[in-house]
Amino acid sequence: MEKASDRARGGGLAHHRIGRRALIGGMAAGGATVALGMTRQASADSTAPFQPSAAAKSKKIAFSQPDTSASIWQPLMVGAREAAAKRGYELLVSHSNSKLDAQLAEIQTWIAEGVAGIIVLPLDNDSLEPLIKKAHQAGIRFLDYSDNALPNVDGWVIFDNLQGARLIGDYAGQWVNQTLGGKAEVALLTHEIQLTGRQRIQGAVAALQKVAPGAKVVAQHEGVLSPQTLPAAQAMLQAHPDINLFICIADEGCDGCLHAFLQTHPSESRTKEMFICGFDGSAPVIQSVLSGSPIRATAALDAVAIGAASVDATVNAVLGSGPTQINFPYVLVDYQSQELGKKLLKELG
User: Fold this and answer.
1) Please, which of 70, 118, 219, 294 could form a disulfide with 236 given CB 3.0 to 4.6 Å?
2) Considering only CA atoms, which of 242, 243, 245, 233 is closest in space to residue 208?
3) Is 68 exposed, middle or buried (CB count within 10 Å of its CB: 0-12, 13-18, 19+)?
């Protein structure tokens, strides 16, 4: 694992990055640690205060990641399927396409089938509480993916969102200072219902304004995917035509913001002063960042390794042994990190 580095290249922006590699083997063996400088780590709690579940004889587990149209979904499932095969389990996956009713129906079906464990990215926390209870009554382990916000779960796989938010916010702040003279009009595409969404956006804004106090938030709208962020960004730019920084809750919304901006027929100088960023490290956004487009940065995650960790944590919860709580750090990808970006694109296939 490469060490994180903080350095300025050619008088440009300071960079905070961490090298990444798959964590599948280490987690399956019972541990997960990712170096992040000298202070912050991805953590796995290896204590398991319970015995193997009543459904432990089942060799099926389920992964409800409902954002099936998102680019991160495929590499996530690659890691999940590889880990499931290695652990000797059949993996059932979501086909709900971000629809709450479909997600709830799938989970109900998996509980009825008697799977051994389920890990869920919740579309609505309150709606899942009865299903957690129902799963436990059937002896099925239930884990939280992305947020550690569901009650009474048997583990979780989450992301160090505040660390990732600081990466994005600090970099954006330096860019504002160096490119825009310290002042910017900022628009936010958010997902307030989810803890991950609040931590990413609020943390990024706090870090941005700490570095560049002249960056002011002038617009905010709920929106994750580009079909949502496109009309939102269009409305924002109509109301605030001088917006020059979009922070998206996820990479999947960056393209919508970019198209809304390009529809304004910006001049070359205006284009050079636009900054769009997101989270997750999707292949299309990494490609846009490396090409020098107005999409200038992403706080990236190792989707393949996270998919594997999600399966491993679920199986560990079923068996009552091994890490069931895992926290992943982010890595910053910008135009200057060409080598890292190309590496991540290769991992994403």
Assistant:
1) 219
2) 245
3) middle
* Residue given tokens 């330096």 in the structure block: 174
Backbone angles phi, psi at 136, to 5 degrees: -65, -35
Choosing among 3.40.50.2300, 3.40.190.170, 1.20.81.30, 3.40.50.2000, the CATH entry for 5-160+302-329 is 3.40.50.2300
Q: What token pair was written down for 270?
A: 């205006």
As a CATH number, domain 161-300 is 3.40.50.2300
pTM of the model: 0.72
- Dihedral class, residue 321 (left if φ above 0, else alpha if ψ from -120 to 50, else beta): beta
The CA angle 222-257-7, to the nearest 5 degrees, is 100
Tell me how far CA of residue 119 lies from CA of 50, 180, 267, in angstroms: 17, 44, 47
User: Which pairing describes strands 331-334 and 295-300: parallel, antiparallel, or unpaired?
Assistant: antiparallel
Give the pair of three-digit tokens for residue 117.
């464990």
pLDDT digits (tens, 9 = 90+) for 123-171: 999 999 999 999 999 999 999 998 888 999 999 999 999 999 999 999 9
